[in-house]
Amino acid sequence: MKRLCLSILVVMLCLCCCAAAESAFRDVPAEEVDRAFSRPMPPHPRLLMTNKQVARIKAELKSQPDMQAFYKAMLAKADDLLDQAPVKRVKTGRRLLSVSRRCLDRVIHLSAAYRLAGEKSYLQRAEKEMLAAAAFSDWNPSHFLDVAEMTAALAIGYDWLYGDLSKASRLTIRQAILEKGLEPSLKNTGWVRGHNNWNQVCNGGITLGALAIAEDQPDLARKLVHRAVNGVQVVMKYYEPDGAYPEGPGYWVYGTSYNVVLLAALESALGTDFNLSKAPGFVASASYYQHVSGPTGLYFNYPDSGSRGGFQPAVFWFAQKYNQPSLAWHQHQLWKDAVARGPSALVESRFAPLILTWRDNRRTVPEDLCWAGRGSNPVAMFRTSWTDKDAVYRP
């Protein structure tokens, strides 16, 4: 095994000097996006977690203890949110990002709790949160990540709760998505074809908003989706050829989570992700993320990543989408550790409820003990075991 891993490393490092494999990316023509929109748009909720998926989740909750533990943790978090004051427009320096993230975290947990438990208090609290954010003067377009995450928050809440929101609340939230999210994205566009996680986060958040209100703004929705499916390809090329993410594991989580949300929302709303999920190196990046997480659960934290990992719903999407359950092996181990630490550890991610949608109960130990990736920031990792927490791990 040592000799094999060394051979792989040598080959990979040599190939780093060679040209990457020819990219399979392509410009998606406007006509192709128009065809996708010409089909009947599914009714709400159509983003990420459909009613069909909710029915499946409810059935699984009856027979899967791990799912029950997660569900109870999610409800406990939603209960804790009921008495907390809604978000306020208070910036930290030039940023509103922490407020946008808090709003997203609250709205998605409360909305998921309502859809699964049916408790009206969750609906009312989510509605209150969204109306508070909608009343902000703006979502801080000078730092557009703030706008993207707030747009994602209101888009998901609007879509998931659409049938139970009051008509007045729907109008207010819809107008906020349009006027404070989508329209500012037409003026502040430096991120659209950017080369880092901003591209993924902003295109992902704005696309959620566009798809959420597509029946009211069909032309704008088509325009923004067309822009997104071409713009995000610029940064997705950085996964080539082997999946190594140049910004390290921490930013892999941030950028790739929104990339996954973008593709999953396109699929659930339009029935296609325009073949972006087949992008070179994209599925391999889930293997990269698993290998860059050591036996203790801590990252090989390069270049400026923190060391602490945790549950990442996007990893479960990869395992389900590509029918490769071994990609989620490390996440299942973290799941067990989180249950031991306490229920709140299960729902730390603001996208945590999506685990219920994407989770695959199969547990398959990865075969490879070494991994190496070329690209703009080459990296290699080696370990002696996937099942021993005292395994030797060498990045």
Structure description:
This protein has a single domain, classed as Glycosyltransferase, CATH 1.50.10.100. Strand 1 (370-373) and strand 2 (379-383) form a beta hairpin. It has a three-stranded antiparallel beta sheet with strand order 1-2-3, with helices on both faces. The protein has helices spanning 2-15, 30-38, 51-61, 65-81, 97-117, 120-134, 144-160, 167-185, 197-212, 218-236, 248-270, 284-291, 313-321, 329-341, 354-358, and strands at residues 370-373, 379-383, 393-394. Helix 5 (97-117) packs antiparallel against helix 6, helix 7 (144-160) packs parallel to helix 9 (197-212) and helix 9 (197-212) runs antiparallel to helix 10. The longest helix is centred in the middle third of the chain and has 23 residues, at 248-270. By secondary structure, the protein is mostly helical. It is built from 15 helices and three strands.
